[in-house]
Design a protein that fits this description.
Radius of gyration: 19 Å
Structural class: mainly alpha
Helix content: over 70%
Distance between the termini: 14 Å
Shape: globular
Strand content: under 5%
Number of helices: 7
Number of strands: 0
Order of helices and strands: HHHHHHH
Low-confidence stretches: none
Mean pLDDT: 83
Length: about 170
């Protein structure tokens, strides 16, 4: 990922963390609806592209079936976000683990560059552990979970920016 794109993604992560802390109930519904819209747009674009192709073959049906499934899931997310909230912790935990692992690898890059890497490494491992706890739904009510996830996203975003600056 280009450095400017990486900084933008990390900044968005910090903003998302702030939103999760301030408005946990609204944030969950909003995120699920945005995910639904994204799936709908993606699926409609792919379906239209496949149907407008002059040499559409039966082998393209598997892609079409997948896109129709994405469209249905997107519509479900948009129309009924409360029904999707039951698996929200799985998605959130996965995101936290992913960024924890990315920051862990960046910490090891710092070690190779003889930089200060111990604290970022420990915090990255902590983020991975929090992500696992989120997935296992051990932390508690969804509102508390969302606020904790907000704090972790702010931390991950800030640490990612700091590590990118340190690595040059």
């Amino acid at each position: 990922m280009k450095k400017s794109g990486s900084f933008l993604a990390l900044f968005v992560m910090i903003v998302l963390g702030l939103v999760l802390i301030a408005y946990p109930e609204s944030a969950i519904s909003m995120i699920i609806r945005i995910l639904g819209i994204g799936l709908i747009v993606f699926a409609i674009g792919n379906i239209a592209s496949q149907l407008l192709t002059k040499d559409f073959k039966l082998s393209g049906m598997t892609g079409l079936v997948g896109d129709i499934a994405a469209l249905v899931i997107g519509l479900f997310c948009f129309i009924s976000p409360s029904a999707v909230e039951g698996i929200f912790h799985l998605v959130l935990g996965g995101i936290i683990i992913y960024h924890g692992v990315v920051n862990l690898l960046r910490s090891l890059d710092l070690k190779a560059l003889n930089g200060k890497w111990q604290v970022p490494l420990a915090l990255s491992l902590l983020a991975v552990m929090v992500g696992v706890l989120v997935i296992l739904n051990i932390i508690g009510p969804l509102r508390l979970l969302v606020r904790i996830a907000g704090v972790v996203l702010i931390y991950n975003g800030a640490l990612g920016i700091w590590l990118n600056i340190k690595r040059g």
